[in-house]
């Protein structure tokens, strides 16, 4: 097993090792954690354990099976993930997009939904794991293993399975062929069908520590420690976001100008310019708008925290300078309503609401909520 390649999230790794050494690895396991927690890497680590031909249970890099896992060419390791379904683009099952997916994994090390949608193109379209994917999985796992050992399926973002696909896999998950293992990786396990969850052993993957993110960035991407700490801070220890900021440093602050302009337009009740802002913002794609809404909630939260004069460790100097002037307008009189409003917008955006109509509706409601009496702490 390739122990040395998985230095990230040691707590979760130890849990997996404990199950493995006690011969208690279930045939179906669910790794649930927030994006950037490293749960996909933990899934790969578990797969390397299951497929490893080394019986000494020690770390080494000479095992041919482990090398194949790390190179993503082991014939008994299968991947499933959400894709944009399109007959014209011949994109109906995961295998149709497998090369692009593996290239993303090799590049980013720790993957995220936004990165994947960006690579597929058309970020306004939701990815899905459909019925044809379930049929493909049934076919692949019904065959004998190529190397005579276990067969492993890693399904990333399993919550993106639609109901029909989930129902097709129920029987296979409950009574799998001999030496067949399912590793489901989710950001939100509550979105999985309860009948699927009941057939899996769930392991919750904790969020990464800042030092873990810094060390990972320094070791895997060979960047200086100062930059690594900056990326770890502004990403709030989300490893995937920190890596994205490394590849595109301008992205780290791209939402701040949007947020500042939006709040100023809402406070001034400039409906004409706000409509222009909505039209422009909707062009960045559905997933980016969802990220922007999460960023908005985080900025509201930072305003509230700063009323208590707590030190910010996850915001940039530009954000801090803006919040000094803006924070009086976000306080105990409107924080709950604002948070509920943005959360509701996120909920509807996930269900394919029209982005322009939604953002304009939210803007009009924010007009009123920002007009509460400003709060200036003593």
Characteristic key phrases:
5 strands, globular, alpha/beta, Rossmann fold, 378 residues, Zinc Finger, Delta Prime, domain 3, 17 helices
**Largest beta-sheet details:** 5 strands, parallel
Q: CATH first level of the largest domain: which class?
A: Alpha Beta
Total count of domains:
3
User: Which word captures the global form?
Assistant: globular
Helix content: 40-55%
Q: How many beta-strand elements?
A: 5
CATH superfamily of the largest domain: P-loop containing nucleotide triphosphate hydrolases
Tell me the structural class. alpha/beta
**Distance separating the two termini:** 59 Å
Low-confidence stretches: none
Assigned CATH architecture of the largest domain: 3-Layer(aba) Sandwich
State Rg: 23 Å
3D architecture notes:
The chain has 378 residues and is an alpha/beta fold. It has 3 domains: 10-207, Rossmann fold; 211-251; 254-369, Zinc Finger, Delta Prime, domain 3, CATH 1.20.272. Helices cover 52% and strands 7% of the residues. It is built from 17 helices and 5 strands. It has helices spanning 10-21, 39-51, 64-70, 98-108, 113-120, 131-142, 163-174, 194-197, 210-221, 225-234, 239-247, 255-268, 271-281, 286-306, 317-326, 335-350, 355-369; strands at residues 28-32, 77-80, 151-156, 180-186, 201-204. Strands 2-3-4-1-5 form a 5-stranded parallel sheet, sandwiched between helices. Strand 3 (151-156), helix 7 and strand 4 (180-186) form a beta-alpha-beta unit. The longest helix is centred in the C-terminal third of the chain and has 21 residues, at 286-306. The protein is globular. The termini are far apart. The mean pLDDT is 88.
